[in-house]
């Protein structure tokens, strides 16, 4: 016959006899009946509900003022116990509060858009089956044919320069007029874009973010309709977005302009895949239904344009899932780690309370003999636990308040919704829930474990002792659990740490030492012609090269690991393809002279660019990376081969050199090819370029002088995002670094708590077995034997905990795969290092009380009782 939950039955014993006896039998019988007919879990929930209801009705009255004063006096007499328990809870609950404040707006809370579950991202399916951005013509076909999408829009990144005397480069978006309606957001001031403004030549209007409106325009409420200078031209401000609006597609966007495309434009073609699509589903339409329709539309487009699509089909995902896909596994792993830390914290406090309760059994026995009932004692223990938990909760708020800003500062720069991460009412409610759950739960456990009649009678006869077998098992179980959870956190920290070390040892393909990067613009009517842009770039290079200590200075359309993505298909003249869309893609580097030398990219075959290659009349040439050369011409020499870039109308270029591969997207991403083209030989000039400078010394020290020299060339153009290449390389590992720091901090705290748990258990055992130690010593037991007795006891518990921890780590590390790099989830080196660390700490924790035991004099021990 199945029995009701054991702890619940113990709680029922605390209800006064006159209320308990008439109902307990009926509760047990009903539980057994429900377990047989409705399932044990349902019966378990029902029995707990009835038990708590009975407790609250008859036994769980709130403490009176006298109880409160008694609780405070009792805790005040044990200040060290109060500090240890409340401080431990403060750190554990504080970590939970901080991580909850981080995870809540990113994964739990819905995006700040109406009916956000209906807002989705739509992608073309690439030749590799992965999501791909789309061209405007594809979007136009979908907009005209779809019946499952209520509205849709496309977006491209826009980085304009605002202002003239005080220029500033902004992050913004160019969007179709339906963008904000698709998200379900309206401007706080002014109006939205109109369809008429979303046409070529009519799109010189902008919407501002609330942050930009306040920073540059002083929160002027008469701003609507006013002109401002953007890229050297007048734009009309038509509205200001709400302060609560958060554009998750391009985090940090502060200004929006209508896209202004039509089908006749060259960059609106199907193969001009630079647009992201967002859509809102019609009511009662599922993602599956929308995807089925989009696949039909895609198949029709591919049939009509077979050489302009690499594959058939579309991909659809909820917007919140799409923007957090990269970060979701890491955040879930960190959330799981902090819950493990909270379990260790609770177990440690429970162990401290259990130890203290054993020493207080004589007190409880005396109070019982003087007439105190079980409900009175239980109420006191619950009150003490609540007081400790509340004090720990207050400390937890302080811990979270101090640590959350530091955590946010080190988050990846492209993480969406960073501005929504802060301590709010929801976080404090979560803290309060932890405090109440832990306080009441520990109080109930202490009450159910600490007051059996047999124990109180024994306490009156013999005082405090090692306790019953049940209590010993409870204390040992807590120690085992703490070490198991600590090992799991240590393994996670070790794996992420080893991955980070391996990642930072990756050959990035260039020398990041002594390099400074600056982003610059050539915007406005003065730079409408390509020759004016090239002349400005030449003046910039001349000014920077004149700075003392500068060895090389060069310009590039993008640099590695900086978040730039500009890929083009590469078609080889001697390797014709039936579908040009299947041509291998490579990262485009439009560069000035000296770029490859400044980067110190190794030359493998051929030559670098020469000054003659940058003349207007020079032959069209290119340098390619080894990976791209091997992909197109495996086993052949690429020198002298001819390639075509950016479409069938582009000129053919001769490969003059092959250089080493660089990691462009990230250090752990699969390798991609690169091609390098002289700046004046590309089809158009790049107004936005990155200046890369190699210096003879500390690059951070040179940065102000380099920036000043570049800015002096044209004060109307901003010089922004100054950084050393070493910083950029480190920033690309931000997600792993944050995870490693958190896991390491959690693991260290967990290890200290686990060591404290085994130390406390053995120290209590030594104190309570003093007489036994004296007897053993008097009968001839050597100090070594007594030492081994206590050490072996602790080592056995740690060994069991380590075994269970390895089993738990096997499960936990499955969630860490996205954070690992060239390290297996159960890496033997990491397990060995963690095992050695855990063993050393555990041995130290066991030796201290064991040495104390062998120093006990037999005569003193025999006289102690």
Q: How can the largest sheet be summarized?
A: 11 strands, mixed
* General shape: elongated
* Discrete helix count: 26
Radius of gyration from the alpha-carbon trace, in angstroms: 35 Å
Strand runs, count: 24
Q: Terminal Cα separation, in Å? A: 45 Å
Unreliable stretches covering 5 or more consecutive residues: 59-66, 456-467
Helix content: 40-55%
**Which whole number gives the mean pLDDT?**
84
Strand residue percentage:
5-15%
The chain-level structural class is alpha+beta
Total count of domains: 5
Short structural summary:
With 865 residues, this protein is α+β, with helices and mostly antiparallel strands. The chain has 26 helices and 24 strands. The chain has five domains: 54 residues; 188 residues, no CATH class; 181 residues, no CATH class; 164 residues, no CATH class; 196 residues, no CATH class.
Report on this structure.
- With 865 residues, the chain is of the alpha+beta class.
- It has five domains: 6-59; 64-113 and 328-465, no CATH class; 130-310, no CATH class; 483-507 and 727-865, no CATH class; 522-717, no CATH class.
- It contains 26 helices and 24 strands.
- Strands 1, 2, 3, 6, 7, 8, 9, 10, 11, 12 and 13 form an eleven-stranded mixed β-sheet that branches. Strands 16-17-22-19-21-20 form a six-stranded mixed barrel. The chain has a four-stranded antiparallel β-sheet with strand order 15-23-14-24.
- Strand 9 (227-230) and strand 10 (233-240) form a beta hairpin.
- The longest helix is centred in the middle third of the chain and has 36 residues, at 374-409.
- The chain is elongated, with a radius of gyration of 35 Å.
- The model is unreliable at 59-66 and 456-467 (pLDDT under 50).
């Amino acid at each position: 016959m199945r029995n009701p939950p054991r702890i619940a039955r113990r709680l029922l014993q605390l209800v006064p006899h006159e209320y308990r006896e008439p109902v307990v039998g009926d509760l047990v019988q009903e539980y057994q009946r429900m377990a047989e007919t409705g399932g044990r879990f349902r019966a378990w929930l029902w029995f707990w509900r009835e038990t708590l209801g009975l407790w609250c009705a008859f036994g769980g009255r709130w403490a009176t003022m006298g109880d409160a004063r008694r609780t405070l006096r009792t805790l005040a007499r044990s200040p060290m116990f109060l500090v240890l328990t409340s401080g431990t809870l403060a750190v554990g609950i504080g970590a939970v509060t901080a991580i909850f404040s981080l995870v809540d707006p990113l994964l739990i809370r819905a995006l700040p858009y109406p009916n956000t579950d209906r807002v989705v991202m739509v992608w073309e399916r690439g030749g590799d089956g992965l999501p791909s951005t789309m061209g405007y013509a594809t979007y136009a076909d979908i907009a005209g044919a779809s019946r499952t999408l209520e509205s849709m829009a496309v977006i491209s990144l826009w980085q304009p320069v605002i202002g003239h005397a005080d220029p500033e480069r902004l992050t913004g978006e160019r969007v179709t007029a339906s963008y904000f309606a698709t998200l379900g957001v309206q401007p706080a001031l002014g109006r939205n874009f109109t369809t008429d403004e979303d046409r070529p030549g009519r799109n010189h209007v902008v919407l501002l973010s609330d942050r930009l409106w306040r920073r540059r325009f002083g929160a002027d409420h008469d701003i609507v309709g006013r002109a401002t200078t953007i890229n050297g031209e007048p734009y009309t401000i038509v509205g200001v977005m709400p302060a609560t609006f958060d554009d998750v597609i391009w985090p940090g966007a502060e200004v929006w302009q209508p896209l202004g495309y039509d089908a006749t434009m060259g960059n609106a073609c199907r193969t001009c895949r630079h647009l992201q699509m967002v859509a809102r589903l019609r009511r009662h339409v599922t993602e599956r239904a929308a995807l089925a329709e989009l696949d039909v539309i895609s198949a029709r487009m591919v049939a009509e344009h077979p050489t302009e699509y690499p594959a058939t089909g579309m991909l659809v995902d909820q917007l919140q899932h799409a923007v957090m896909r990269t970060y979701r596994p890491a955040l879930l792993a960190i959330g799981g780690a902090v819950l493990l830390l909270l379990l260790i914290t609770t177990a440690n406090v429970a162990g401290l309370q259990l130890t203290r309760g054993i020493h207080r059994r004589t007190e409880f026995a005396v109070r019982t003999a003087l007439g105190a009932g079980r409900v009175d004692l239980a109420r006191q223990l619950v009150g003490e636990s609540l007081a400790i938990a509340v004090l720990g909760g207050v400390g937890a708020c302080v811990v979270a308040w101090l640590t959350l800003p530091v955590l946010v500062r080190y988050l990846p720069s492209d993480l969406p919704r960073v501005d929504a991460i802060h301590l709010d009412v929801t976080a404090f409610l979560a803290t309060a829930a932890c405090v109440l759950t832990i306080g009441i739960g520990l109080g109930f456990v202490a009450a159910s474990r600490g007051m059996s009649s047999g124990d109180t009678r024994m306490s009156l006869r013999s005082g405090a002792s090692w306790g019953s077998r049940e209590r010993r098992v409870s204390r040992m179980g807590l120690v085992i659990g703490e070490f198991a959870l600590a090992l799991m956190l240590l393994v996670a920290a070790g794996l992420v740490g080893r991955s980070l070390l391996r990642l930072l040892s990756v050959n990035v393909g260039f020398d990041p030492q002594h390099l400074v990067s600056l982003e610059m613009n050539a915007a406005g009517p003065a730079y409408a012609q390509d020759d004016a842009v090239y002349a400005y770039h030449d003046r910039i290079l001349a000014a920077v090269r004149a700075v003392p200590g500068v060895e090389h200075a060069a310009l590039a359309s993008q640099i590695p690991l900086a978040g730039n993505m500009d890929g083009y298909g590469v078609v080889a003249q001697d390797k014709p393809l039936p579908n040009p869309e299947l041509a291998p893609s490579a990262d485009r580097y439009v560069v000035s002279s000296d770029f490859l030398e400044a980067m110190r990219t190794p030359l493998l075959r051929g030559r670098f660019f020469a000054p003659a290659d940058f003349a207007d009349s020079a032959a069209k040439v290119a340098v390619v990376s080894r990976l791209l050369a091997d992909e197109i011409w495996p086993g052949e020499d690429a020198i002298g081969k001819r390639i075509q870039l950016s479409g069938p109308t582009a000129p053919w270029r001769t490969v003059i050199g092959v250089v080493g591969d660089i990691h462009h997207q990230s250090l752990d991403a699969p390798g991609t090819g690169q091609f390098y083209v002289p700046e004046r030989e590309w089809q158009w000039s790049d107004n936005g370029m990155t200046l890369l400078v190699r210096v003879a010394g500390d690059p951070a020290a040179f940065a102000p002088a380099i920036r000043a020299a570049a800015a002096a060339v044209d004060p109307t153009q901003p010089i922004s995002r100054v950084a050393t290449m070493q910083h950029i390389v480190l920033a690309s590992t931000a997600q792993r670094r944050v995870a490693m720091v958190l896991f390491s901090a959690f693991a260290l705290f967990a290890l200290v708590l686990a060591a404290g748990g085994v130390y406390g258990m053995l120290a209590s055992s030594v104190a309570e077995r003093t007489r036994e130690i004296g007897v053993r010593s008097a009968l001839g037991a050597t100090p070594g034997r007594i030492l081994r007795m206590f050490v072996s006891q602790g080592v056995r518990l740690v060994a069991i905990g380590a075994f269970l921890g390895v089993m738990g780590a096997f499960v936990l590390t499955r969630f860490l795969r996205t954070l690992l790099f060239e390290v297996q989830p159960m890496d033997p080196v990491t397990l060995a290092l963690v095992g050695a660390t855990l063993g050393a700490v555990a041995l130290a924790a066991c030796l201290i009380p064991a040495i104390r035991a062998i120093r006990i004099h037999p005569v003193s021990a025999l006289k102690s009782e």
